[in-house]
Write a structure and sequence with these properties.
The protein is globular, with a radius of gyration of 18 Å. The strands form 2 sheets. It has an 8-stranded parallel beta sheet, with helices on both faces. It is built from 10 helices and 10 strands. The structure holds zinc ion (ZN).
Length: 317
């Protein structure tokens, strides 16, 4: 069976303004790596569909979804009329343009479709090369470059629509996934394990919001060997006990030592190792089912190489 790869051109058109690190070129860097390493043919490509609003409302309040729709559709219509759209700030570092509504729906839609592909046995696992990312989006708030929480939307789809009893969320982005925690804390069908630099934006995660949250804050300048030790000692026993039937990954690559948004020291081999450890758990308890969604990763070359390492592992290459 194959690894599904979901993306869409709309995700490339969402643009938060010149100089913003969460830029369209991030997706180009990933594509370039795949093409130059002959990975293109190894993946089963799909165009991401737009998520239904009902899917979003499994993770976000109906009021928040309606507010986002009103704000972002207005920008979309402005752009469709040929008017210039200056990036509109939704928080100090999160901006929308005329393509953000479509991109945000595609990003969440990719995660949902990936879940269905894997659940239906049409792919062993899946990677969503999408933006905007999702793990900072809370139930009621866009923040930290995120609008809808793609992973939380997909996890709830797996539970509420596809009938699973237990899913795990694994978040190895360098920033704490505060949005995912906000949405999934105290949902005892979910175990979330994460590792993140502390202190660092969004300055949360030290006090978990629920017993189903396993947060591992690590100090700046922690390197790969220490991170691997902590994952082995803390995540693995908890995942083994929980026996997830499917694993969702918030795959951020900004803990790479070349990434300038944080100060951790991971390299490509660490991302490969983490991916293989997640796959071990998935193989034992979840029929191998993994849906991974792109979160952060801002050094373009390091991002391409790191996603490459992650995908190579997922595809068994
Ligand atoms: Zn991040």
């Amino acid at each position: 069976m194959s690894t599904a790869y979901l993306s869409h051109q709309d995700c490339h058109r969402h643009d938060m303004g010149g100089g913003h690190p969460e830029c369209p070129q991030r997706l180009d860097a990933i594509e370039d790596w795949l093409i130059s390493h002959g990975m293109d043919a190894a993946l089963d490509r799909h165009d991401a569909p737009k998520a239904e609003l009902a899917c979003l409302e499994r993770a976000h309040s109906a009021r928040y979804v309606a507010e986002m729709r009103a704000t972002l559709e207005a920008l979309e219509q402005q752009a469709a009329r040929g008017e210039g759209v200056a990036p509109k700030a939704l928080d100090p570092d999160t901006f929308a343009n005329g393509h953000t509504w479509a991109a945000a729906l595609r990003a969440a839609g990719a995660a949902v479709m990936a879940t269905d592909l894997v659940m239906d046995g049409r792919a062993e696992n899946a990677f969503c090369a999408v933006r905007p990312p999702g793990h900072h989006a809370t139930r009621d708030q866009a923040m930290g470059f995120c609008f809808f929480n793609n992973v939380a939307v997909a996890a709830r789809h797996a539970l509420d629509v596809r009938g699973l009893d237990r899913v795990a969320v694994v978040d190895f982005d360098v920033h704490h996934g505060n949005g995912t925690e906000d949405i999934l804390a105290n949902d005892d069908r979910v175990l979330m394990v994460s590792i993140f630099q502390d202190p660092l934006y969004p300055y949360s995660g030290n006090d978990p919001l629920g017993p189903n949250m396993l947060n591992v804050p690590v100090p700046p300048y922690t390197r790969g060997p220490e991170v691997r030790e902590m994952i082995e000692a803390l995540w693995m026993p908890a995942l083994e006990r929980f026996k997830p039937q499917m694993i969702f990954v918030s795959a951020g690559f900004d803990a790479h030592r070349e990434d300038e948004l944080a100060q951790l020291g991971l390299v490509e081999a660490d991302y490969e190792w983490i991916t293989l450890r997640i796959m071990d758990v998935a193989r034992r308890h979840a029929k191998g089912r993994i849906v991974s969604c792109l979160e952060g990763g801002y050094h373009l070359s390091a991002l391409g190489r790191s996603v490459g390492a992650h995908l190579r592992a997922l595809a068994g290459l």
